[in-house]
Amino acid sequence: MDLYMRHPAPETSIYVLKGAGNKAFCAGGDVVNLTTDKTYKTAQRFYYEEYQLNYHLMTMKSAQVALWNGYVLGGGVGISLPSRYRVATEKTLFGMPETAIGLIPDVGGTWFLPRLKHAGVGLYMGLTGHKLKGADVMHAGLATHFVPSAKIPELEKALCEIRDASTVGALLDSYNVKDLPPYSLERDLPFFAKTFRKDTTMEAIMEAVTAERAADEIVEEAHRLMSSYSPTSLKLALEAYRRGCDMTDPKDAFALEYMMALRLAKDGDFVEGVRALLVDKDKKPQWSPKTLAEVTPASLETFFKPTFANQVAWDPVKPFPE
């Protein structure tokens, strides 16, 4: 955070982002810590500063290269998707799993999911948490280059030796593999475009996947996953996506996500989702309310209003007050 925001680099600088070890780029943030502070100060500061960093990465002019050689999940997406160059390998596993824990696709998801390459794929990924593997990340338009994982150390070394940022693209192109396996979601793209639309409802989506699931394993997975998720988070994720479609500035997306995340931390299903999946790990969350029908438009609207009387409004530049 300090490196990026307090010490701006010149436009000629090159940042190479990689994960520690050989398993993941970044598998997400430590959300368990956010559920233990009942004053909610930890959550307020965390989301405020995380979204500031995400926005800063979106707007910085220096060349960034993200080496996605492993898991790229949740918070890992937020710090790397803004990169000018994003390199996938056969080991890449990309996803936004927040809805599974009673949250919503954040870290800019409200902005970038509606703008993915194929109609409906962004909403499908946001609601189900489906993870794209390997070449699928290229097919979806999320990665800019595909490089075999065995070549990543060599590529990283070459990137670190570059002195002219304008040559980064050409270097990556020289490693890029164009002959890729087919897109595993190709046959489902028409269904996604028809079903996962901004002008639909969660009830209509569930009805469509229920009708189609027996004939399609991808749709069956979508049905299984969404049936186990928080009804509130599902409806909220759809509404956030809908609003994100009409936004013209990513600042608005982060301000909206900040509002929703704090309400979910206090009054939503986030604490229960974290308990069931990450703390007790019984995988039996007790969502409240339990059904989509019980989540009313009026109850959803509260998630777009301040949660606390003295809530700090999110700002892309101002430090979080002490």
Task: Provide the descriptors you would attach to this structure in a database record.
single chain, alpha/beta, 8 strands, 322 residues
Describe the structure.
The chain has 322 residues and is an alpha/beta fold. The protein has a single domain (2-304), classed as 2-enoyl-CoA Hydratase, Chain A, domain 1 (Alpha-Beta Complex), CATH 3.90.226.10. It is built from 15 helices and 8 strands. The strands form 2 sheets. Strands 1-3-5-8 form a 4-stranded parallel sheet, covered by helices on one side. Strands 2-4-6-7 form a 4-stranded mixed sheet. The protein is globular and about 55 Å long. The model has no long low-confidence stretch (mean pLDDT 94).
Short précis:
With 322 residues, the chain is of the alpha/beta class. It is 43% helix and 8% strand.
Which segments are poorly predicted (pLDDT under 50) over 5 or more consecutive residues?
none
> Number of helical runs?
15
* Total beta-strand segments: 8
CATH topology: 2-enoyl-CoA Hydratase, Chain A, domain 1
The structure class reads alpha/beta
Beta-strand portion reads: 5-15%
Which secondary structure elements does this structure contain, and how are they paired or packed?
Blueprint (H helix, E strand, L loop, with lengths): L1 H4 L8 E4 L6 E3 L14 H19 L3 E6 L2 E3 L1 H6 L4 E4 L4 E3 L13 H4 L8 H8 L3 E2 L2 H4 L5 E2 L5 H10 L6 H8 L13 H7 L6 H11 L4 H11 L3 H15 L4 H18 L2 H10 L17 H5 L21
Parallel strand pairs: 1-3, 2-4, 3-5, 4-6, 5-8
Antiparallel strand pairs: 6-7
Helix pairs in contact: 2-13, 10-11, 12-13
